[in-house]
Amino acid sequence: MSFQAPKGTFDWMPPRSERVLAVRDALSAPARRAGYGYIETPAFEDTGLFSRGVGESTDIVTKEMYTFVDKGGRSITLRPEGTASVVRAVLEHGLPGGPLPVKLWYSGSYYRYERAQKGRYRHFSQVGAEAIGTEDPAVDAELIVLAVDGYAALGLTGVRLLLNSLGCAECRPAYRAALQDFLRGLDLDEQTRQRIEINPLRVLDDKRPEVQAQLAGAPLVTDHLCGACKAYHEEVRTLLTAAGVTYTDDPRLVRGLDYYTRTTFEFLHDGLGSQSAVGGGGRYDGLSEMIGGPPLPSVGWALGVDRTVLAMEAEGLFDAQPATVDVFAVPLGEEARRAVFGLVVALRRAGLSADMAFGGRGVKGAMKAADRSGARFALILGDRDLAAGAVQVKDLTTAEQTAVPIAEVADVLKGKLS
Ligand code: ATP
Ligand code: MG
């Protein structure tokens, strides 16, 4: 019997998996430089955290959660997103009593029972950042700039930023009512009609062309913002422009989660087909109260690691075959094998990346392994070299070969590699 990864999941395997690490590092680096601390929360939570924190009317809660009863009779859900867990942790640890905002970043696996296709998986990975407890347009702008800088650090040029404001508890109800009036007059299926009553903004997010076609004349949230929301949004836009960030105002941008207020944004990449969102986020002033906390106006984003790798591949931003090590050592004979093992250990301890031929292969097989490793240098050690206390250093790009005393090989290689 043989097994495959479950439907909608896949394995990142070397060397391509290096790209995942590179993307995770680059997307989180700007936040770390901006004072965001690292948070790690469990991969599962009480189901109620997500049904309340993400929202009963969202696709995530109605269709996409991996929920099960554990052996202690608790309803548990594999986390479909990161924000609810982060806010839960911040409340649980009493952080709102200290300096605000609490700025945190995270990275990990998320689980959604989705229709699997390219760029849409049931297990995927995100880098996220949240600034909790402060209402200040500069925080919203900071987060957006951090994401923009992360994509730029990866060399991506095709990422577009869409920006909108969803209003607040003051102005959203009137907009909601106007939108409901409009939507009730459309020709929609029963499920969508129900959605009009529960969360009409989500209808704007419906991706079906027959629905989108009817939405052309829908009232726009930006025409219904109160004075405070308008001024807030204007300030976010001004700060972004001053930071050199290009964006497109999209008054139809709503997002899949119920808790968003005011600033909402999404990053798109056109090289990905229909799964074009590489990241998104926004302000969620009401979330803390929804999960039993005090009012904590907050803003954050989550960037999709898998889709960002795909976007980079679409832009041809990766080397075909990244080198795994700088140096690959080949022993010729049993005694040489012991010496090579010691030499490789010493090189690694000296800070070089080094590997060796294992498994007692012949010279030909071992040299092939050296070539395949992508290493710059091969170290070849035979019994005669051993007697002379030297090792052959072969530059695999030029095929040039020189004998170097074993005691000096680490320094010589460091010099050549720097
Ligand atoms: P979409 O509209 O594509 O379903 P979303 O609004 O559900 O995206 P978010 O919850 O905002 O996505 O998650 C942030 C980012 O995480 C997305 O922009 C995307 O890059 C990534 N992401 C979300 N769901 C998946 C998935 N099923 N597979 C791979 N990446 C995903
Ligand atoms: Mg989704």
UniProtKB/TrEMBL annotation:
<comment type="subunit">
    <text>Homodimer.</text>
</comment>
<feature type="binding site">
    <location>
        <begin position="81"/>
        <end position="83"/>
    </location>
    <ligand>
        <name>L-histidine</name>
    </ligand>
</feature>
<comment type="similarity">
    <text>Belongs to the class-II aminoacyl-tRNA synthetase family.</text>
</comment>
<keyword id="KW-0030">Aminoacyl-tRNA synthetase</keyword>
<dbReference type="InterPro" id="IPR045864">
    <property type="entry name" value="aa-tRNA-synth_II/BPL/LPL"/>
</dbReference>
<dbReference type="InterPro" id="IPR006195">
    <property type="entry name" value="aa-tRNA-synth_II"/>
</dbReference>
<keyword id="KW-0963">Cytoplasm</keyword>
<dbReference type="InterPro" id="IPR033656">
    <property type="entry name" value="HisRS_anticodon"/>
</dbReference>
<feature type="domain" description="Aminoacyl-transfer RNA synthetases class-II family profile">
    <location>
        <begin position="22"/>
        <end position="322"/>
    </location>
</feature>
<dbReference type="InterPro" id="IPR004154">
    <property type="entry name" value="Anticodon-bd"/>
</dbReference>
<dbReference type="GO" id="GO:0006427">
    <property type="term" value="P:histidyl-tRNA aminoacylation"/>
</dbReference>
<protein>
    <recommendedName>
        <fullName>Histidine--tRNA ligase</fullName>
        <ecNumber>6.1.1.21</ecNumber>
    </recommendedName>
</protein>
<dbReference type="InterPro" id="IPR041715">
    <property type="entry name" value="HisRS-like_core"/>
</dbReference>
<dbReference type="InterPro" id="IPR004516">
    <property type="entry name" value="HisRS/HisZ"/>
</dbReference>
<dbReference type="Pfam" id="PF13393">
    <property type="entry name" value="tRNA-synt_His"/>
</dbReference>
<feature type="binding site">
    <location>
        <position position="126"/>
    </location>
    <ligand>
        <name>L-histidine</name>
    </ligand>
</feature>
<feature type="binding site">
    <location>
        <begin position="259"/>
        <end position="260"/>
    </location>
    <ligand>
        <name>L-histidine</name>
    </ligand>
</feature>
<dbReference type="InterPro" id="IPR015807">
    <property type="entry name" value="His-tRNA-ligase"/>
</dbReference>
<dbReference type="GO" id="GO:0005737">
    <property type="term" value="C:cytoplasm"/>
</dbReference>
<dbReference type="GO" id="GO:0005524">
    <property type="term" value="F:ATP binding"/>
</dbReference>
<dbReference type="Pfam" id="PF03129">
    <property type="entry name" value="HGTP_anticodon"/>
</dbReference>
<keyword id="KW-0648">Protein biosynthesis</keyword>
<keyword id="KW-0067">ATP-binding</keyword>
<keyword id="KW-0547">Nucleotide-binding</keyword>
<keyword id="KW-0436">Ligase</keyword>
<feature type="binding site">
    <location>
        <position position="255"/>
    </location>
    <ligand>
        <name>L-histidine</name>
    </ligand>
</feature>
<dbReference type="InterPro" id="IPR036621">
    <property type="entry name" value="Anticodon-bd_dom_sf"/>
</dbReference>
<feature type="binding site">
    <location>
        <position position="130"/>
    </location>
    <ligand>
        <name>L-histidine</name>
    </ligand>
</feature>
<dbReference type="GO" id="GO:0004821">
    <property type="term" value="F:histidine-tRNA ligase activity"/>
</dbReference>
<feature type="binding site">
    <location>
        <position position="112"/>
    </location>
    <ligand>
        <name>L-histidine</name>
    </ligand>
</feature>
